[in-house]
Amino acid sequence: MAPEDAGSGTPVLELRKVDKHFGAVHVLKGVDFEAHRGEVTALVGDNGAGKSTLVKSVAGIHAFDAGEYLFEGRPVKVENPKQANALGIEVVYQDLALCDNLDVVANMYLGRENRTGITLDEASMEKSARETLDGLSVRTLKSVRTKVSSLSGGQRQTVAIARAVLWNSKVVILDEPTAALGVAQTEQVLNLVRRLADRGLAVILISHNMNDVIKVADRVVALYLGQTAAQIKAKDTTTAQIVELITSGRSGDIGLRDADAENGGAA
Ligand SMILES: Nc1ncnc2c1ncn2[C@@H]1O[C@H](COP(=O)(O)OP(=O)(O)OP(=O)(O)O)[C@@H](O)[C@H]1O
């Protein structure tokens, strides 16, 4: 069950009419986007719709050219990944950025290790890593001292997600977390995604997999040619409707007006 106030009130993350160009290419065109605590927001769109650009701009890798970026209702400037992390925004990219030759604890603390003087505080890191995994009800890892090279794809994804939530995160963005997984591991990761939201995080899930979206999302934001085609509650929509929004920018009376979509296509 999501927290009582899930999805209500001020969004944790809100983008209003954001724009992004790469040289002459206009990639994001006045995009609106909201993510709320306690909810999984699926960000969907065809290849090239602008999902990665949107997420990288939220994460401070790129900067929006125009529009408003609000965090917990306040306008913020996020000009680099450290500033995004400081707000409580973490991204788990598809490559996971794990070091195979290090164990789970070392990977969860990579680059942000606890130190006492000049030595690493292994005991405190191991304790918090374990507590974080226990808090997420992760039971598939036998030991936090296991090297990541010996973990399955699902376990690796779990470690990358646990690393993201270790830092009192408020927003966790997951880029296609089940893309390389089999059926059982996909199920495990989707359950974990749900638990993150149930713990009060705002989870943003980039996905091309409509089964995943329908199974786990509370809200769906569809991008079409760099514009927001729709922001809708998952329970009010169907897979067919989402697919239509992705492929044509509209479905029934939801979505971009044809003229807008055509302008987007021509830009
Ligand atoms: N650094 C860049 N320089 C120039 N153009 C870029 C850059 N990054 C992305 N683009 C362009 O922006 C558009 C949107 O790309 P983006 O990767 O954001 O889409 P996406 O929705 O994430 O697609 P996919 O599902 O294929 O990952 C594409 O036309 C892409 O070529």
Key descriptive features of the protein:
single chain; 267 residues; alpha/beta; six-stranded mixed β-sheet; four-stranded antiparallel β-sheet; 14 strands; 33% helix; 26% strand; globular; binds adenosine-5'-triphosphate
Mean pLDDT: 90
Order of helices and strands: EEEHEEHEHEEHHEHEHEEHEEH
Unreliable spans:
none
Give the overall shape, derived from the CA principal axes.
globular
**Could you say which structural class the secondary elements and strand pairing correspond to?**
alpha/beta
Helix content: 25-40%
Distinct compounds present: adenosine-5'-triphosphate
For the sheet with most strands, the description reads: 6 strands, mixed
Helix tally?
9
What is the tally of beta strands?
A: 14
**Cα-atom radius of gyration:** 19 Å
C-alpha termini separation: 43 Å
Strand order of the largest sheet: 6-9-10-3-11-12
The fraction of residues assigned to DSSP E strands is: 25-35%
Overview of the molecule:
One of its GO terms (molecular function) is ATP binding. The chain is of the alpha/beta class and 267 residues long. It contains 9 helices and 14 strands. The strands form 4 sheets. A 6-stranded mixed sheet has the order 6-9-10-3-11-12, with helices on both faces. Strands 2-1-4-5 form a 4-stranded antiparallel sheet, with helices on one face. The mean pLDDT is 90. Adenosine-5'-triphosphate (ATP) binds next to β2 and α1.
Task: Compile the SSE list and pairings.
Layout: E1 13-22, E2 25-35, E3 40-45, H1 51-58, E4 66-71, E5 74-75, H2 81-87, E6 89-92, H3 104-108, E7 115-116, E8 119-120, H4 122-135, H5 153-165, E9 171-175, H6 183-198, E10 202-206, H7 210-216, E11 219-224, E12 227-233, H8 239-248, E13 250-251, E14 254-255, H9 258-266
Parallel strand pairs: 3-10, 3-11, 6-9, 9-10
Antiparallel strand pairs: 1-2, 1-4, 4-5, 7-8, 11-12, 13-14
Helix pairs in contact: 5-6
Residues 22, 25, 27, 45, 47-53 line the site of adenosine-5'-triphosphate.
